[in-house]
């Protein structure tokens, strides 16, 4: 009987000695802003994840979803599949608010908690969830809602 083969692979483009290390949320925000298209920051929500190794070095960026002016879809299963595929031990979530209000919504808080619990079951630590706008940001870690 024919059965499909599933193959997991990760193709790092940056050697370990050249990978950026995340020390705090300020540095994470700076890196994430550099990876965001400024032309879409105020246009539509997008959700991206930085995956990190056990030294907090970035092993990859996962552009998870793009949505509407007020929302984007977040699929926990796809995020965890991506994390496992690259061998991540930690991650930093990030999405933008086109409204320029960086305050997290109730939905933002719920998905953060849900994803943190799911990741913990497979030994992946959620270090932060950062909401960026054109002129500001909000860090769940800096506000005591996640331990960095």
What does this structure look like?
The chain is of the alpha+beta class. It has one domain (20-139): Cytidine Deaminase, domain 2 (3-Layer(aba) Sandwich), CATH 3.40.140.10. 24% of the residues lie in helices and 23% in strands. It contains three helices and five strands. The chain has helices at residues 25-35, 76-85, 106-120, and strands spanning 46-52, 58-66, 90-96, 125-132, 137-139. Strands 2-1-3-4-5 form a five-stranded mixed beta sheet, with helices on both faces. The longest helix has 15 residues, at 106-120. The chain is globular and about 55 Å long. It starts with 24 loop residues before the first helix and ends in a 9-residue tail after the last strand. The mean pLDDT is 95.
Give me the CATH fold name.
Cytidine Deaminase, domain 2
Say which CATH homologous superfamily is assigned: Cytidine Deaminase, domain 2
Radius of gyration over C-alpha positions, nearest whole angstrom:
15 Å
Q: Judging from the principal axes of the Cα atoms, what is the shape?
A: globular
* Beta-strand residue fraction: 15-25%
Please give the count of helices.
3
User: Runs with pLDDT <50, length 5+?
Assistant: none
Terminal CA distance: 49 Å
What is the average per-residue confidence, as pLDDT, rounded to a whole number? 95
Tally of extended strands?
5
What profile does the largest beta sheet have?
5 strands, mixed
Domain count: 1
């Amino acid at each position: 009987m024919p059965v499909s083969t599933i193959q997991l692979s990760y193709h790092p483009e940056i050697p370990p000695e050249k990978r950026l290390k995340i020390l705090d949320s300020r540095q994470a925000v700076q890196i994430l802003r550099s990876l965001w298209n400024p032309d879409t920051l105020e246009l539509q929500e997008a959700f991206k994840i930085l995956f990190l190794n056990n030294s907090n070095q970035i092993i990859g960026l996962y552009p998870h979803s793009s949505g509407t002016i007020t929302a984007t879809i977040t699929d926990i299963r796809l995020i965890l599949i991506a994390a496992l595929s690259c061998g991540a031990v930690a991650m930093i979530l990030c999405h933008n608010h086109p409204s320029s209000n960086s305050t997290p919504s109730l939905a933002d808080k719920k998905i953060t908690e849900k994803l943190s619990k799911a990741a913990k079951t497979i030994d992946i630590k959620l270090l932060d969830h950062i909401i960026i706008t054109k002129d500001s940001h909000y860090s769940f870690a800096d506000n005591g809602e996640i331990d960095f």
